[in-house]
Amino acid sequence: MKYYAGLDGSLKEISICIVDDDGKIVEQGSAPCDAEGVRGWFTARSLAPERIAHESGPLSIWLQRGLTRLTLPATCIDARKAHKSLSARPNKSDAADAEGLAQLARTGWFTPVHIRSEEADLLRSLIGARERLIRLRKELEGHIRGILKTFGIRMTGVTHTRQRQAFRDQ
Questions:
Q1: Residue ranges covered by each domain of the chain
Q2: Which CATH architecture has domain 3-107?
Q3: Residue 151 has what DSSP assignment?
Q4: What is the pLDDT of residue 11?
Q5: What pTM, to 2 d.p., does this model score?
Q6: What's the angle, vertex CA 47, arms to CA 42 and CA 50, rounded to 5?
Q7: pLDDT tens-digit profile of 125-141?
Q8: How far is residue 80's CA from residue 120's CA, in Å, rounded to a whole number?
Q9: Which of 8, 25, 61, 108 is buried deepest, with most CB atoms within 10 A?
Q10: Dmax of the chain from CA atoms?
């Protein structure tokens, strides 16, 4: 028999629901909010789902990477599209959402989300931090230039590296 799992995560815990080929609930519960906790939950019940579905969100990239590292067949699905099918359900709770996600995993009616590699995220973070530091430096230089004008000190504009050094020297 094939089993399908749905995970609905929050900051503290993950609601888990397992359904079978016919869509009947086999097991429901919750686990700590990390990949090891999810794997431990499956192992304690001797369940090996064919597919695990969870919605995209703030922690989904971290969770997906952890589940993949543990060789669990997890798929991160588009939260906006999943919301449309989950909002049609009468009961809105974490457990009910986990059941809905398990049903989506069973039927295949979902759109998977691409998860960037950890290296890509590290590079993106460095580029973003550099861009922010450059913007802060320019804002600070402009602020200093404005303050100095009140004392009659007029600084020239900065467009090249040599002029930037001249600004610092002044």
A1: 3-107, 118-169
A2: 2-Layer Sandwich (3.30)
A3: T
A4: 85
A5: 0.77
A6: 105
A7: 999 999 999 999 989 98
A8: 24
A9: 8
A10: 82
